[in-house]
Amino acid sequence: MVQRKKENRRGPLIKASEDPALPVRARGVRGKGVPKGRVVPPVIIGWKEYVDLPSWNIRHLKAKIDTGARTSAIHASKIIRKKNRLLLVLHPHRKKSEKVHHITTVSTGDKWVTDSGGHRSRRPVVKTWIVIGKKRKKIEFTVTRRDNMLFRLILGRKALEGNFIVDPSQKYMTSKKRGL
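^ that's the sequence the OP posted. Answer follows.
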């Protein structure tokens, strides 16, 4: 008697370890609500995307996907420390400076970061949820002033690993450009 693999309406359930067509790092991640043995494939994203930070009530924030950066960074015009808590004043949209978000969050520590100009600085680190397309993930950001930069948010390799594949020839692949 030949044993067949169980199937559902999406096709056969294949364990990632059984699919030789997928390289180990591109096999995706089993997420919440996904049956055991079912693997969620990584999402293909462009070099810039719109993201949401639902914990901070920030929607449609333009982010640069920077595979050259190890850590992620978010802009805050004002950073006030009180023990392990941070008060952040965020202007998420560069052209709409009247939109301001006051965020109180817990700092998970500090990190020494070297910027693209070779300057080292110590930055506070925070964790929050981010939504890119239909993927939701908790990631770590360093907080800094990015006044003169085009993007208020940089997503580095650590935030992308395991869930995303970057296509540098594309942009805004996970969302349509919406009015703010």
